[in-house]
């Protein structure tokens, strides 16, 4: 199927200003060869919609936009403990039934759960309300530590700024890493964050100059993916012992050096598969996997398809802005 082009985000009264801003920014028209999305906010009745910060938001479209969008997003809202109106729930289930991609982040997941779209599926929401979601909807497997959970036609994301992670994941999944990375750069965001919500519950306090040394070491690793990059070498460049390096790395990224490097290598391999005609063997060496067999094994395990199939999927010509 072609990637989504029309995007409709449901914004009820009390809609989160941050959530509305995230989707509006991500799916804005940029030009420069990037996809041209037909994006719209919609609500129960067009007009002024109250936001969670008290400011009114003018929403020009009604629920009819949900009936035609390729991607439907339920935004978080202040009164999420009260289910949306039956017409809204019907619009969400109808969108799913006709094959639209349906997503939500933060407490927007409560709308999908109320519509029955999360029954029998895994999902996430803001960590603070994960227990409530699980209690109210026992048929949903709630994953409180995930930044996003992809269940094919239904995708949910964690709270607050994790809406960016959700949207960038959808772009990466449907349009490829090159498009997702370009939009992330435009927004001055990381294109992919490893780890889960737990890493953001407590912010580590910087200790003298070690964070700067860690950053320098990781920048060097990004520029030298073709090298083996053992942890001992990264620790040496950060002027730390292996134990101190591992501790600071986990505190700063929420993951392990091995997982971080694997994600980085796979992401770079995706870009090269999409944007060059380099043989898979050469790409494997360029990103540090050593051989096409190793790259293929990691790609199938982490992306679900072999590299050549991935390349064929993203050699189409998408609709772009002039």
Structure in words:
It is built from 13 helices and 10 strands. The protein has helices at 17-26, 86-97, 109-114, 130-136, 162-175, 177-186, 210-223, 231-237, 242-253, 257-275, 280-286, 292-303, 307-313, and strands spanning 6-10, 38-42, 47-50, 56-59, 71-74, 101-105, 122-123, 141-142, 148-151, 154-157. Helix 4 links the parallel strand 7 and strand 8 (141-142). Helix 1 (17-26) packs parallel to helix 5 and helix 8 crosses helix 9. The longest helix has 19 residues, at 257-275. Mean pLDDT is 89; it is low at 198-208 and 317-322.
Compact overview of the structure:
This protein has 13 helices and 10 strands. It has helices at 17-26, 86-97, 109-114, 130-136, 162-175, 177-186, 210-223, 231-237, 242-253, 257-275, 280-286, 292-303, 307-313, and strands spanning 6-10, 38-42, 47-50, 56-59, 71-74, 101-105, 122-123, 141-142, 148-151, 154-157. Strands 2-1-5-6-10-9 form a 6-stranded mixed beta sheet. A two-stranded antiparallel sheet has the order 3-4.
């Amino acid at each position: 199927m072609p990637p989504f082009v029309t995007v409709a985000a449901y914004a009820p009264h009390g809609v989160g200003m941050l959530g509305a801003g995230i989707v509006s920014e991500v799916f804005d028209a940029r030009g420069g060869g990037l996809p041209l999305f037909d994006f719209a906010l919609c609500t129960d009745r067009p007009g002024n919609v109250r936001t969670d910060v008290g400011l009114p938001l003018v929403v020009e479209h009604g629920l009819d936009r949900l009936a035609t969008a390729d991607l439907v997003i339920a935004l978080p809202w202040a009164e999420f403990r009260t289910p949306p109106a039956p017409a809204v729930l019907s619009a969400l289930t109808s969108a799913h039934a006709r094959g639209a991609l349906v997503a939500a982040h933060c407490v927007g997941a409560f709308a999908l759960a109320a519509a029955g779209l999360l029954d029998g599926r895994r999902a996430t929401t803001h960590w603070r309300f994960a227990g409530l979601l699980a209690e109210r909807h026992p048929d949903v497997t709630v994953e409180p530590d995930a930044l996003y959970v992809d269940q094919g036609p239904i995708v949910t994301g964690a709270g607050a700024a994790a809406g960016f992670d959700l949207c960038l994941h959808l772009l990466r999944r449907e349009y490829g890493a090159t498009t997702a990375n370009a939009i992330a750069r435009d927004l001055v965001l990381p294109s992919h964050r490893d780890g889960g919500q737990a890493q953001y519950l407590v912010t580590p306090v910087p200790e003298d100059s070690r964070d700067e040394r860690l950053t320098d070491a990781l920048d060097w690793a990004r520029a030298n993916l073709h090298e083996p990059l053992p942890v001992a070498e990264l620790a040496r460049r950060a002027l730390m012992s292996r134990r101190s390096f591992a501790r600071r790395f986990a505190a700063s990224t929420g993951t392990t050096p091995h997982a971080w490097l694997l994600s980085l290598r796979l992401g770079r391999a995706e870009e090269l598969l999409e944007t060059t005609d380099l043989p898979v063997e050469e790409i494997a060496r360029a990103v540090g996997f050593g051989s096409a067999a190793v790259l293929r094994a990691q790609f199938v395990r982490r992306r679900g398809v072999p590299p050549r199939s991935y390349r064929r999927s993203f050699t189409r010509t998408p609709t772009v802005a002039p």
